[in-house]
Amino acid sequence: MISLAGRDLLHSWGKFVFTGMGLGLLIGVTLSMAGIYRGMVDDAKVLLDNSGADLWVVQQDTLGPYAESSSLYDDTYRGIRGMPGVSRAANVTYLTTQVRQGGRDVRAMVVGIEPGRAGEPGQPTFLVAGRQITRGHYEAVADIASGFKLGDDVQIRRSHYTVVGLTRRMVSSSGDPMVFIPLKDAQEAQFLKDNDAVARQRRRTAENPAFNRPGTPGLLDAVLASQSANPYVNAVLVQIEPGYAPEEVAEPIRRWKRLQVFTRAQMEGILVGKLIATSAKQIGMFLVILSVVSAAIVAFIIYTLTMGKIREIAVLKLIGTRNRTIAGMIMQQAVGLGVIGFVVGKIAATLWAPIFPKYVLLIPGDAARGFAIVVVICMLASVLAIRAALKVDPAEAIGG
To answer: 194-236 pLDDT, tens per residue?
Structure first.
């Protein structure tokens, strides 16, 4: 039976191989879609890993700092540091914005951290070049995916920063590269107003009679100064001491500080279950559609090849070949077409994955499952051609 299928393919091997290559490109797209989803999940997990935090303390009744806006006073971390089981606590801000370098813009997540505190949660890790931020202003550490280099001058809002360090795989949940800057600069950038808005606010404040009463010297200046400052951060990242369970440390913070606290498992559930959920459903729909299209293509090609050799099948029946042998021949051709397509698709997906703007993670488990699905689809797609072949009358071999 194997020899019969092989001999038959020798007569139309060119059409068979090129059809398999075309099917392979479609399978490659399918594998890439699965890899994009895996990459999104991996980006979310990498974001949590790189934060170095065991707990995320955010504004009450929010899912921040990655899923929703969160705002805390920047002195909140001092009280959290004194809670039982807390080893370290650090302020952090997150702002997704355009970072300009020369004549190009890069979409990035700007992270505000306390400079000179290496090892604390929120600090950039995996430095591949340069150093950490040590000054309080105008220094930056960027992920290499941003395309920035050491010594580059980058602009975030109205301020300019010098890139002093480069990291690897420090990305947001959406795959944007991270750019770390000093916390004070990040606070200013996050709530920065344009010059006209600042001037209008100061004029409105100066015209308020409450700040111009006799006997209150300096009150107006103090109010204007407070309006230009930003005392807020998005979250406090907490590392717990050994021997404590995350929930054991989180519950007292919720109760006594009246803040929302998420553990690693809870934050991962928010990122994967809420932020990525819609994209996952959309990718799932594409995978279903591509699978159906692949099955239709295989069915059409195998049916066409079968109808092209009706007389040969009639001859086989005439000489006493069993229907099982003929069906096996057609099914082997369908599976062979799928195997060629899968090999081509796997090679294509591996080659073009690095070109994608988002991270594409191709894992062996998905490839194994994909191969099994391709074989099953090809076997099912051959049923139509097998039914047509089994209906062939042996007399057609004589009549032709």
So the answer is: 566 556 666 666 666 655 555 555 554 544 444 455 788 999 9
Structure tokens, 153: 């001058």
Residue 95 to residue 106: CA distance in whole angstroms: 13
Two tokens at 378?
Answer: 């090809």
Please list, in sequence order, all residues whose beta carbon lies within 8 angstroms of the beta carbon of residue 230, skipping any fewer than 6 positions away: 187, 188, 190, 191
Structure tokens at 296: 């239709």
Residue 313 — very low, low, confident or very high, per pLDDT cuts 50/70/90? confident
Q: Answer for the pair 154, 161: CB distance below 8 angstroms, yes or no.
A: yes
- Full-prediction pTM beyond 0.85? no
Q: Give me the residue spans of the domains in the chain.
A: 2-44+277-399, 60-191+230-258
Query: Bridge-partner residues for 310, per DSSP?
Result: none
Bond prior to 209 in cis (omega within 30° of 0) = no
Cβ atoms < 10 Å from Cβ of 397: 18
Cis peptide before 65 (omega within 30 of 0): yes
Distance CA 99, CA 11 (A): 60
Residue 263 banded pLDDT, cuts 50, 70, 90: very high
Distance CA 54, CA 73 (A): 20
pLDDT tens-digit series, residues 72-122: 998 999 999 999 999 999 999 999 999 999 888 999 999 999 998 877 899
Helix (H, G, I), strand (E, B) or coil at 90: strand
Euclidean distance between the first and the last CA atom of the chain, given in angstroms as a whole number: 25
The pair of structure tokens assigned to 250 is 């989180």
